[in-house]
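I am writing to request your help with a piece of structural work I have in hand. A protein sequence and the C-alpha cells that stand for its backbone fold form the material at issue. Please examine both parts with care and let me know of anything in them that strikes you as inconsistent. The record follows directly beneath this note.
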Amino acid sequence: MRYIYILVFLTLFSVSLESDELIIGLDNALLIEAENVKELCLGGSGLDNLPPSFCDFTNLIYLNMAQNELTALPECCINFKEIKELNLSANYLSDISAIKGMSSLEILDLSMNDSLSAGQLDNLIGLKQLTQLDLSYLNLNSIPQSIYLLKNLKELILTGNNITQKDLDNLKQINRNLHIII
C-alpha cells in the first residue's frame, strides 16, 4: 500500500512539472523537461554565464534575464525560434549576436546595458516581428541604421540617450506609426 502512495505522489509531481506556468530560477527549470518550459524568469540571479543545459530550452516564449552580470547572450539562443518576449535589461552585454535567430521576437528590452555598442544593434535587423524595443540608457548618440529597418516597430524607448531631434524626425518619417519615448 505504501508503494501505491509513492507511485501516486510521483505521478502527481510529474504532472505538475509539465505545466506552462512561469518558472522562476534555473534550478527549478532544470527539474522540468526542457521542451515543456515556455516561460522562464532568471532575473536578479547574479548569473554571469549559463550552463550548457540552458540551451535545451528551445521552446521558450518568454525569458527574463534582467539584472544579472551577463556580458554576452549565449550563442545557443540563436535556436530560440519561438521566443516572443526577451528582457535582457541591466546586464553588462557587449555581444547580442545570437539574437538574430529569434525570428518570432516581438518585445525586447536591452536597456541599461551601457557596454552594448551601436554596432551590436545591427543584430536586430532580421527581427521582423519586433513591435516594442527598449534601448534606454545605452549612451547612444544617434539612432542605429538597424532601427530604421524594423518596419513593424510600434514603440521605441530611447530615454537616457543623446539622440538629436533630427534623428527622431527622420525615424518618424520612415515609420509614421512609431511611438518614440525619450
Observations:
- The chain has a mean pLDDT of 89.
- The two ends are 66 Å apart (CA to CA).
- DSSP finds four helices and eight strands in the chain.
